[in-house]
Amino acid sequence: MEALKEHTIAFSGLADGAHEFQFTLEPEFYAAAGDEDLEGGQMTVDVKLEKSSTLLVVNIHLKGTLALHCDRCDGPLDFPIDGKQQQIYRLTGQEEFEDDELVSLDSHAHSINLTHYIYECLRLALPIRHVHPAGQCDPEVEQVLNKMEVEHDPHPDPRWEVLKDLKDKQQ
């Protein structure tokens, strides 16, 4: 995901201590994401930055609704999102490395861009399957899906009982 300048925080002029920032995800964010699942939405991102001489601890909290398509009926779906993520930046001139939460910054760095981490937080807050609550899918699609539904026999296949008996005999 390309970095957007509106998600850049210049930390070099900030005093040590806690600082708060707030962003609203604009259509440019969803376009830059290049993710066909994300069509837009009303998302607010609250960022709490704790600065010290050697670390930046960034807590990202995003909340709002995301415009998606239902995986069951393909209708429009406003999905509520509430996600949190922490990112830690180490301010040293040492060898750069990166793991899930710890990023090493050059000692001459003066700003951080959070676009990628906001996107990451958004994707991690989404469940794998996006569906309407029961009974709210498109009624026409529901009818077709109900016609195609396969009835399952509640009785297990008798071959499993034979295998279970063999297993019990061995024990």
Give an overview in words.
24% of the residues lie in helices and 36% in strands. The chain is α+β, with helices and mostly antiparallel strands. Strand 3 and strand 4 (55-69) form a beta hairpin. The longest helix has 13 residues, at 158-170. The radius of gyration is 24 Å and the shape is flat. It starts with 7 loop residues before the first strand and ends with a helix.
Which range does the strand content fall in? Answer: 35-45%
Largest sheet: spatial strand order: 2-3-4-5-6
Distance between the termini: 56 Å
Radius of gyration, in Å, reads 24 Å
How many strands? 7
Shape: flat
Helix percent band:
10-25%
Descriptive key words:
alpha+beta; 24% helix; 5-stranded mixed sheet; 171 residues; 36% strand; two-stranded antiparallel ribbon
